[in-house]
Amino acid sequence: MSRDTESEHANANSPTGSDVDAGEYTAQLEEVMDSDDDEGFVYDGIDAPRRDYSEQLRDALSDEGEQYDDDKDDESAENEKEELAVEHNVGVPIVTTVRVDDDYDDELSNQGSELALSTRVLMSPRPDEHDRADSPAFSRPAFLHPTVSRLRSFTPRRSSSSGSIQSPRANDDSPLPSHFSAISTSSSLGAPQGTSTPRDDIDGAYRPFRWTVLRELGRQIHLSKSQKATEMLGAPGTPTVFTANGLICVGTTRGKTLVFDFKQQLRCICGSDQIAKTAGAVTALCLSNDHTFVAVGHETGHIYLYDLAKHQIPARTVVPTTLAAVSSGKKDGHLAGSRIVSLGFVGARHTAIVSADEHGLAFYHSLGQVLFVEATDTLRILGKYPITPNAPPPNTRRSSSILAADPLPLGPAPHPVDHHQLIALLTPSKLVIVGLKPQARTLHRVHREDEPNMRGCMAWFPSTFAHKDGTVGESANGSSAAAGATRPMIVFSWGRQVQLIRVREERPAPLPTPRKGAQPPKQPPATLVFEVGGKWKTDFDVVALQWLNVQQLVVLTVKSIEVYDIRTMRRVERCSFKPRTLIHDAGLAQVGPDNVFTDNTLDVARSVRSYKGKLFLLGQKEVQVGSLLSWADRILAHVREGRFLDAVDLCREYYVGEAPGNKLGLPDDPAALRTLVGTRLRELMNASADYAFSEERMHDGTHGGPGGQGVDRTTLFEQLVSVCARACMALDDFDFLFQELFEQYQEHLIAPIFLVQIEPFMLDGRIRAAPPTVTQQLIAYHEQRADLNAAEKVIWHIDPQCLDVDQAITLCERHGLYDALIYVYTRALRDYMSPLVSLLELVRKLKIYRRDPAHSRLDDDAAEKLTLNSYKVFTYLGNVLSGLTYPSQEPIPEDEAVQARKVIYTFMFYGRSSMWPAGDSGRLILTMEDESIPEPTYPYLRLLLRFDSESFLHALDIAFEDSYLNDDSRGIGRAIILRILLELVSSPTVPALTSTDETFVYIFIARNVPKYPQFIQLPPTMLHSVLIGLAGDPDETTREDRQLAAECLLSSYTPHDADQVAELFDEAGFFRILRSWHRRDGHYPELVRAYLRDPEIEPAELFESIEDILVTGARAKKGQLPEELVEAVMQSLPQILESGLTQTAMLVDTHMPRMHARVIEEISYPARQFAYLRSLLQPQLLEEEAFEVAPTQPHASSTKLDPESRHLYISLLCHHDPAGIISALESPPAETFDLGRALQICEEKEVFGAVIWIHDRQGDVAVALERFENVSKDLAVRLSQELKDSGQQEFTNNDLRSITDELQDLAHVAVSICQRHTEEQDIKVEDLWLQVLRSQMDVVQIVSSSLTATETEDSPDDHPMLEFMRVLVQNTFGVLLSQSRNTVSLSRLFKRLVDSSSALRSTSKSVYTEFKRILTATLETYKADGDALEITNRLLERDIFEAVEQLTTGRLRGWTARINQCAHCHKLIQVSALPPTTSTAQAHVTPKSGDTAPDLSQHITILRSGIIYHTSCYAALATSTDSPSSP
What we know:
- By secondary structure, the chain is α+β, with helices and mostly antiparallel strands.
- The chain contains 51 helices and 38 strands.
């Protein structure tokens, strides 16, 4: 038996099995384009006839050699035609109107007969396409605003000018993507997403597979409800597993195996009713490589081998054994009742198979015969038997189950690895590869990593031929000429983790041959090397793996079918899919309580097979075959649907390597790929042009007049140009575009459509060269439409060699298109003088207009345009003198650039007027507005300086950076230019420069002298005059610019009369220069004045600088501040105080504290004096928003303030903040204030609270409380009198408010005195409290008596003023009860208080009444506080009890999750306790790294098996299960 016959399965997976080679592609394209009997492309008013296109699509979708697709019955073929017609929406007529413009006259007839013919009828482009903007690379130079240049003190930048002078737009309007919208209204191909991303069909826009349903086969294996009776009479049963490898074999629940060929004809049925009763359902199938034998495994452990030529009875049988037989050593094999899950043929033998069961046992069977008696040799290669018959099944252990067991199949190319007979076994924990030859042993292991899902699958790919052209597989002619063989590969997965391993053999160096007659040594054995080819993770769990070919792997996940390119390890295709629609073995498997697999990952690997590049799916309702579309298939699909332009675009993307999706059928070699695809691209462009301009379509009346008849084909012809332009750019060949295609547009009188569509490619630089005929017609077209901007852009974007120079110059001069005119002169004629002369004439014309605009013939619009064009002279000079082209700013060739600079410099810096053009035919170029005035020296230099000196010097500054000026031997240099400029400034020649012009000349010189010291050597007198000129301009707007220029000049020049220059700088306001000089010379007083006079200095910087000056000055005098420096600061005190009051205080306190009195005297306003002193004595209380500048950092109170200033602060406190006096007196240090002097001030200001406090601090407690009692009574009397006089009962009177506030402050001070003396032994604390309370009670009595004497409507007991007084007493009682109850007898104090109050009042009843009210209110307050505390305590106890109880209950119940991870979304879940049912519970979700933090209150659902879900994920899983779908 030959290897080629035995390895057909491997041959089928090579890429050539599904590729469209060059001959097939050309034949199909010619068939579509040139068929004589197919009238699908003869236009009859309706696009894309249904019948013709359906037939074409059906032909396109059926590959040669696939018999099962061609042999469908009539009904299935008709259904498929209907499905295709619906999918592509063919047969929909599109009828609109034709856009025609007859206004395009015969003015362009002088351009040639072809041009005149092509412009008879113009199909006008859309209005928005005429407004094409410039591309960034060729955008028009912006107008140079006079206040933005390199001469300014800030960073120069370009900006569009305001007003009516605007720079053109710089947007790049690329041609829109083309679609043959007039042929088809929809496309089956989605928009490309880039080369590194796969094409997805998730949105329904693209399908990477072409699916075919095997209906005839499906009818025989999937019985309908009406066939149930047939099933009961002996039908084979429902399918369980299948394989497809030359034949399609389907196993059923009734133990039978149905064998079909690819014509869907039933070849045979293996198995019988007796076998079905004995062995049960079929659970594993394997077809031999030569398609002659099939091995069948059953759910009871039986294995049968059938010869398809004699399928009635099994050729071999493997019967399961018992544990007793195994223990006795009589027999080895699967135990009875063990379901067979995997089968495979080893090598080329029909009788060598590998099998695995659900209990983790795998065996190698050699099914031989001795004297017509079966002799089976069985070798256990993985797994362990149970120890005892009653032991649980082996699959209760996590890692013992076998997910797959596959031997390495033979490939078309022989490989040394094949001789080892490798067998791969995949378990939930590891991959084991066993070699049977030369002896059975384990060769390689791979352990599962951190993937939590243990479900896995795998697939081998054998060795195949690798050809010299980069392709793999057998050659197209069947030869085996190859450069080598590929290595066998195996791909396997657990959960989402996929890994690829390649296998190769390494043989050690052979041992030397012994001498003659000696026994040859035993050569060392070869070893196998297993190399990791790649690892990646999918988005969802993997359920099946299959190889389409050596380069492409199909990965079936729980959500989609994905195709990976093994060369790049990237996903190239993806389509949505639901694996639950496939047959799975969940119904046959016994799920135990300790099942380690997630139930949402179904075992469907045995329902997915691949063969000859096709993917076979065994579904629950049908069997489907999917073909991955190759590059040629996708292009031909567009062609057959009539979307030629989409086909051209897609082919172009393949050519440049930008096409997304798979590259099936394309060679690996880039040169071969470009040759192959380039040929197809040219064919498609020719076919598209032939179709668009076919004779039938151009004369069938569909391009009728503007009345609305016919179909509007404008979009078709527009998009044909843009699509072919992009294709020709990719091919770098424009012959087709500008010769064949343009001639077609000219012949059919629609050349303007071509011109308008090709224009954007010229404007953005993608097409720089075009035939002169094309550019000539395009410029003439824009001129006729009066679209001068568009004409100008075309001129200076195209290669000048492609222009009609006479036409371009005439157009530009006629309409003032100076950008284009300069471009034509410089790039086409290499003439750099003519543009400059033209621009200078514009400047002279503008100067004439500005001198007398009233008598000028220019209107405002013309003057505005003239201004814009005139300013282009500066950009032109800057570009050319820097060796750049205008306006594109590209480098000019070196020789040409040198000549251009020489001509320009000679003309500009020549001392007299010049003739242009040179020679007898030239004319004198004038600059003066009045021709009667003689021309001055250096006329053109003067003209530009008088026009806009800043802009001209800006351009000249750019030119100074060019190396051309480094060599003075050319007659021009930087020093020469500067001398000429100084000569112009000092020259009295009329017209003289303005002071502003002279200033900018000085700035220009001053900034360039130190920049180029090796090239510019000017005498000191010149530099001194420049320095004087910079300081002499009184213009304040240029002060900073002049100062910066002076700084630059001073970096390389030192004036001899520095004092005189310093005076000039002081008058000019060059304070930054003066500061540097004063700091250098140590003139610190002048330095302070320079800082203070500079308006640019911010207050924060000012104080920081002054402090630095004071520190530096003191350091120079050994720690003593110079008196002149102190006097300078004091003389500038008003300005310093205005900049920051508090910072001035800190500055003076730090460096000159003896000047505080002088500073306070200088501050005339008391409020500012108060702020100044507070910032020194109480800086923490200073309100930052109330004054100019707050201290940057908190600091301690000053100790350097004189006593008078401190007492002044007490006096100011009495007025501005009386309540803050006590806090000021308490603040450290204690010796800050003299209490006696403070007492005198407070007495004078009547701040009695402070007076009482001072008395107490002086040790006169009795005096303090006596003053408290007296003042309280006086205030009570005043309050009573105010109440009588005002008659008001609310706190609306300001006097009443002030009295009550003072009473409250006094009470606070008195209570604080009692508290302070509570712990002292030598003072009777009870007497202190008695005196305070008695005074307060007297106040209450006085107020109550006055209210009783006053006639009021309400009862005096409810008066708010009286309530306020009682609250004061209650507060005093509260403090007494909380802090002094241990040192004071409350009963005795109360009795003494009542007695003393009764003795002073005639009516004791009122006294008792007041005491009762006060004490009752106090006790009620305490009772309310106690009740609140008790309620709070009870609430806390209950909450703690419930929380502990719930936690304890949760720990005692619930199911334990085996893995704390959702089986659907794979997010980690931190679970503390779970309920004992499948209901929901609260859980905390911990997201993985990079995930978004989820809601912490998500619900979870846990199953009895220990699998855990989020409730939302479980609901989504149930929904997807209930609604199956197919790809």
